[in-house]
Write a structure and sequence with these properties.
- This protein has a four-stranded antiparallel beta sheet with strand order 1-2-3-4. It has a four-stranded mixed beta sheet with strand order 7-8-10-9. A two-stranded antiparallel ribbon has the order 5-6.
- It has two domains: 135 residues, Ribosomal Protein S5, domain 2 (2-Layer Sandwich), CATH 3.30.230.10; 30 residues.
- It is 35% helix and 27% strand.
- The protein is α+β, with helices and mostly antiparallel strands.
């Protein structure tokens, strides 16, 4: 169908009508708005306009289904989200396009946030281990200046959580899904002095003093 251009006399211009979605109308009105909406879903740490969360793409996998007319591609994304203040979550999304799979994974991650108790806002309160399937990880608290000693998916999870000093080691499968789930299993075992004090009916100062005394005795034995 040929498209012809018509000129209108000055003063008789009519306002441009926007199309409603896919159903015909003006290509600029319909497709343009839809394109801008899709672009807003793209990369960056604040896809939903929420500045308190940062996200990291851990893994993205492409699969192909062979059909009569060719191949149909699909994408699966694994994303971890956190506020760098003790809250973290992960999500898995699938779609025909990569950006859409990442968007779904990010939304799922924000719905499954958990809170992890941090010591002085920089490290874990105590050592811990986590396991999921063939994945097995170990997390250890560290003194100031240690940094994040971890690799792969575990490092991404610890960064968005807000940990600054930690030593982590993977002792099982290198599958990113198992490693992430095992890391979250280790987070669930973390407790804070406040939680222990409430459970035992003690004061937080008593728990902290006992921990310092135990650390001093351990240093004396090592010396």
């Amino acid at each position: 169908m040929a498209i012809t251009e018509t000129s209108t006399p000055p003063g008789d211009e009519q306002p441009q009508r926007r199309g409603r979605g896919r159903g015909g109308g003006n290509r600029e009105g319909g497709g343009g708005d839809r394109g801008r909406r899709d672009n807003n879903r793209g990369g960056g740490n604040d896809r939903d306009g929420d500045n308190e969360f940062s996200d990291k793409l851990i893994a993205i996998n492409r699969v192909a289904k062979v059909v009569k007319g060719g191949k149909n591609f699909a994408f699966a994304a694994l994303v971890v989200v956190g506020d760098k203040k003790g809250r973290v979550g992960f999500g898995h999304g699938k779609a025909r396009e990569g950006p859409e799979a990442i968007r779904k994974a990010t939304e799922e991650a924000k719905k499954s946030l958990i809170r992890v108790a941090l010591r002085e806002g920089r490290t874990l309160h105590h050592d811990g281990e986590g396991r999921h399937g063939a994945g097995k990880v170990m997390l250890r608290s560290a003194p100031p200046g240690t940094g994040i000693i971890a690799g792969g998916p575990m490092r991404a999870v610890l960064e968005v959580l807000g940990v600054q000093d930690v030593v982590a080691k993977s002792k099982g499968s290198s599958n990113p899904y198992n490693m992430v789930r095992a890391t979250f299993d280790a987070f669930k075992g973390q407790t804070s002095p406040r939680h222990i004090a409430n459970r035992r009916g003690l004061k937080v100062a008593d728990i902290i003093s006992r921990r310092k005394d135990g650390a001093g005795q351990a240093e004396g034995v090592e010396g």
